[in-house]
């Protein structure tokens, strides 16, 4: 999904009805937002953070200094690691690392839903939708997190719903 489309989804999920126009710049199609009363803003996370503040939903950026840093860390991860995926092997490594990280967490920052969850969900959707049942089971923590985020009010919107089987098909025992 193009970053501009993600930003439009984010606007709607935040309850903003501005209908901002986004353009893309360069080979990597970096999103650009021309603001009404100032310079244009460039980059997915910069624009997304601006939209959150515009919607007066700053809690999505984290409530403590540590949580804010974790949100920034995951926003950077989204742009540097997820958007740069080129091979199936890269994706497997990313999902394995994310699966380990989410082992004891409901959300990326721990117990609070943030912008990091929204943007990582949007970034991973195109990959998760193509996983087999067995692959989803292999990355159980990612699957649990993803399923939880897609059912969060207003987040999924027109994106296809990804189905997860509640009972494991296979166990580790023989």
TrEMBL record:
Q: What are the protein's UniProt keywords?
A: Acetylation, Coiled coil, Cytoplasm, Nucleus, Protein biosynthesis
Kindly name one Pfam family recorded for this protein. Arc1p_N_like
* Localization of this protein: Cytoplasm; Nucleus
| CC per GO annotation | aminoacyl-tRNA synthetase multienzyme complex; cytoplasm; nucleus
Q: Known PANTHER family for this protein?
A: EUKARYOTIC TRANSLATION ELONGATION FACTOR 1 EPSILON-1 (PTHR44490:SF1)
Q: How does it assemble?
A: Part of a multisubunit complex that groups tRNA ligases for Arg (RARS1), Asp (DARS1), Gln (QARS1), Ile (IARS1), Leu (LARS1), Lys (KARS1), Met (MARS1) the bifunctional ligase for Glu and Pro (EPRS1) and the auxiliary subunits AIMP1/p43, AIMP2/p38 and EEF1E1/p18. Can interact simultaneously with MARS1 and EPRS1. Forms a linear complex that contains MARS1, EEF1E1, EPRS1 and AIMP2 that is at the core of the multisubunit complex. Interacts with ATM and ATR.
Q: What is this protein called?
A: Eukaryotic translation elongation factor 1 epsilon-1
Q: Which organism is it from?
A: Oryctolagus cuniculus
Lineage start: Eukaryota, Metazoa, Chordata, Craniata, Vertebrata
């Amino acid at each position: 999904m193009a970053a501009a489309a993600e930003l439009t989804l984010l606007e709607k999920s935040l309850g903003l009805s501005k209908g901002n126009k986004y353009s893309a710049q360069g080979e990597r199609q970096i999103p650009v937002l021309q603001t009404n009363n100032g310079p244009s803003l460039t980059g997915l996370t910069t624009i997304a953070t601006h939209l959150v503040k515009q919607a007066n939903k700053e809690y999505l950026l984290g409530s403590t200094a540590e949580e804010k840093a974790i949100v920034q860390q995951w926003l950077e991860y989204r742009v540097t690691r997820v958007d740069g995926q080129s091979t199936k092997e890269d994706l497997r490594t990313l999902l394995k690392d994310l699966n380990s990280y989410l082992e004891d967490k409901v959300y990326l920052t721990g117990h609070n839903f943030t912008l990091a969850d929204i943007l990582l969900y949007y970034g991973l959707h195109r990959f998760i939708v193509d996983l087999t049942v067995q692959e989803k089971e292999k990355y159980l923590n990612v699957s649990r997190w993803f399923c939880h985020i897609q059912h969060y009010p207003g987040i999924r919107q027109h994106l296809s719903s990804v189905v997860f089987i509640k009972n494991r098909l296979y166990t580790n025992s023989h």
